[in-house]
């Protein structure tokens, strides 16, 4: 079975496989019921197309297929993935990963390996995945960055002033805005951070290191 976002691609690949002697049960564009279709037809191998192998939840159909039909070998068909994309595909239960620019001979070899119970993935892709697992890149303080991305530059300045202990009047005077506008900014900051008070906002900003990152941004916006 061939399942892909682009019906034309799915049908072309299915036709090419038929010409090489394979019996293709169906070619369908993925939708809410794509996994159910695979489960209902129970092919030996399913080629499942994906456009974003690193996107969260993209391999949920693979999980569902393997849960309901563990005997079906699922080959992910997608673009050149990141090592994390390869790892996510196999973690979901895929039997292999085939690049969309692979020649039909390569697709056929992957199908043969999957039917034999072997991992079907190009050696260079597998080496990249293992390389990242063995030598993971250092990750930044994701929590502080996530919080900063939620706030506008003006809200960042308000947060810094709140952490400095400024009340609404001083925030308004320092930023050249009306007290009512300052109160609105403060309330938006509290809401976005998911806290109930200025003290909690200041504590969260300090704990995550957000203040250290926010100060240079505040200086740049002032210029």
Describe the protein.
It comes from Streptomyces corchorusii (Streptomyces chibaensis). The chain has helices at 7-19, 34-41, 60-68, 83-92, 104-115, 123-134, 142-150, 153-163, 168-175, 179-193, 198-208, 210-222, and strands at residues 2-3, 27-28, 45-49, 73-78, 96-99, 120-121. It has 223 residues and is α/β, with parallel strands linked by helices. The protein has 2 domains: 2-134, 3-Layer(aba) Sandwich (Rossmann fold); 140-214, Winged helix-like DNA-binding domain superfamily/Winged helix DNA-binding domain (Arc Repressor Mutant, subunit A), CATH 1.10.10. A 6-stranded parallel β-sheet has the order 2-1-3-4-5-6, sandwiched between helices.
Q: Poorly predicted ranges (pLDDT <50, ≥5 residues)?
A: 217-223
Give the number of helices: 12
For the record, give the distance between the C-alpha atoms at the N and C termini, rounded to a whole number.
60 Å
Output the radius of gyration: 26 Å
Query: Count of DSSP E strands?
Result: 6
CATH architecture of the largest domain: 3-Layer(aba) Sandwich
> What is the N-to-C order of secondary-structure elements (H for helix, E for strand)?
EHEHEHEHEHEHHHHHHH
Helix amount, in percent? 55-70%
Q: How would the global form be characterised?
A: elongated
Tell me the domain tally: 2
Question: What's the CATH class of the largest domain, please?
Answer: Alpha Beta
Strand content: 5-15%
Q: What does the largest sheet look like?
A: 6 strands, parallel
Pfam family, one: GerE
Protein name: Transcriptional regulator
GO molecular function: DNA binding
Keywords: DNA-binding, Transcription, Transcription regulation
């Amino acid at each position: 079975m061939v399942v892909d976002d682009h019906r034309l691609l799915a049908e072309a690949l299915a036709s090419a496989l038929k010409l090489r002697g394979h019996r293709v049960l169906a070619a369908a564009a993925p939708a809410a019921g794509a996994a159910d279709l695979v489960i209902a037809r129970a092919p030996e191998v399913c080629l499942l197309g994906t456009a974003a192998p690193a996107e969260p939840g993209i391999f949920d159909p693979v999980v569902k297929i393997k849960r309901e039909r563990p005997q079906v070998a699922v080959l992910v068909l997608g673009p050149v993935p990141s090592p994390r994309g390869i790892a996510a595909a196999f973690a979901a239960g895929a039997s292999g990963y085939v690049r969309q620019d692979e020649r039909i001979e390569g697709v056929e070899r992957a199908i043969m390996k999957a039917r034999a119970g072997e991992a079907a993935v190009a050696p260079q892709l597998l080496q990249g995945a293992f390389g990242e697992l063995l030598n993971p890149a250092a990750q930044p303080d994701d929590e502080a960055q996530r919080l900063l991305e939620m706030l506008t530059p003006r809200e960042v300045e308000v947060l810094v002033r709140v952490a400095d202990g400024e009340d609404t009047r001083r925030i308004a005077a320092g930023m050249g805005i009306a007290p009512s506008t300052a109160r609105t900014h403060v309330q938006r900051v509290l809401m976005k951070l998911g806290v109930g008070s200025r003290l909690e906002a200041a504590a969260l900003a300090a704990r995550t290191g957000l203040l250290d990152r926010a100060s240079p941004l505040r200086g740049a916006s002032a210029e």
